[in-house]
Write a structure and sequence with these properties.
Developmentally regulated GTP binding protein 2, 26% strand, TGS, GTP-binding_2, flat, 239 residues, single chain, 7 helices, nucleotide-binding
């Protein structure tokens, strides 16, 4: 909350991924502090949204069900939590074993769930055992900016966490243009690629030829709904 702390943290709520640059020589002190700060403004790191169905109603009391045995929550506890929030009529269905905190997150409803990468810098100043320990922590990457160690691996992991793919275009009778890539989200279809190249291209689209891992053979003739994969090459044929 010092300086413009709150505003800086508010920006993180709209981000696609959070990178925590940590000093490897200081252990986990910084990490715990930052996690706590982000947690307090409703950002949940490396966690998926709790699979709990919750719907407030006008009347009829509390309807409570669970599809799995619950070890951390009970009907009594759910009722107490709802009473705290002045909710007396609601439908609740637990589809997984969740904690009371998860249930509160669902009630409040303004929580953001996002991936986070913990990047430990200055690994050249600590023992090899400590580097090994940090590198094996989940969602962690060890680097040294001073000695330019492991930076390419950091880029690879970041690419993975952002769920981005890289596509190349090709003109008829020419080689693919590998110097200029199109960056798309994972799961993008040929139609998305058409819109990215030019907004009128999808309406003039006849078919596309695709080379790469998303096809059964090279080149494969595909339609607008074909899902592209990383480093595919596409040639679009217009009507």
């Amino acid at each position: 909350g010092k300086g413009r702390g709150r505003q800086v943290i508010a920006v993180a709520r709209t981000a696609d991924v959070v990178i925590m640059m940590l000093d490897a020589t200081k252990g986990d002190v910084q990490r715990k502090l930052l996690e706590k700060e982000l947690e307090s403004v409703g950002i949940r790191l490396n966690r998926s949204k709790p699979n709990i169905y919750f719907k407030p109603k006008k009347g009829g009391g509390l309807s409570y069900n669970s599809m799995v045995p619950l070890t951390m929550c009970s009907e009594k506890l759910v009722q107490l939590i709802l009473h705290e929030y002045k909710i007396f009529n609601a439908e609740v269905l637990f589809r997984e074993d969740s904690t009371p905190d998860d249930f509160i997150d669902v009630i409040v409803g303004n929580r953001v769930y996002m991936p986070c990468l913990y990047v430990y810098n200055k690994v050249d100043q600590i023992s090899i055992e400590e580097v090994d320990r940090l590198a094996h922590e989940p969602h962690s990457v060890v680097i040294s900016c001073g000695m330019k160690l492991n930076l390419d691996f950091l880029l690879e992991r970041l690419w993975e966490y952002l769920a981005l793919i890289c596509l190349y275009t090709k003109k008829r009778g020419e080689r693919p243009d590998f110097s200029d890539a199109i960056i798309m989200r994972r799961g993008a279809s040929v139609e998305h690629v058409c819109h990215r190249i030019h907004r009128t291209l999808a309406s003039q689209f006849k078919y596309a030829l695709v080379w790469g891992t998303s096809t059964k053979f090279d080149p494969q003739r595909v339609g607008l709904t074909h899902i592209m994969e990383h480093e595919d090459v596409i040639q679009i044929v217009k009507k």
